[in-house]
Amino acid sequence: MKILPLTQMQQPLTLEKSAKSPGDGAGFGEVLKKSLEGVNATIQEAGQMTEGLVTGQHSNIHETMIAMEKSTVSFRMLTKVQQKVIAAYQDVMRIQV
User: Rounded distance, CA 16 to CA 80, Å?
Assistant: First the structure.
């Protein structure tokens, strides 16, 4: 089996194609997509809460700070997962067959 560099591959790899297995309910791509949507939703919620606080629509600073921290923690977790996925990919690419 010959391993080609990514630039010479005939067919691009996508999460949808490579992650789904016949007996699986949700593949890796679907889980990743839902996670990204969840992080995006928390960031948007924090932005709306902050905007509402600044414009005077509400005065609940505690809920705004909690929403901001939730979005910060979610984004940090997302970046850690991204780093782990990249590290795993690099490990797989270093495997000699």
Answer: 22
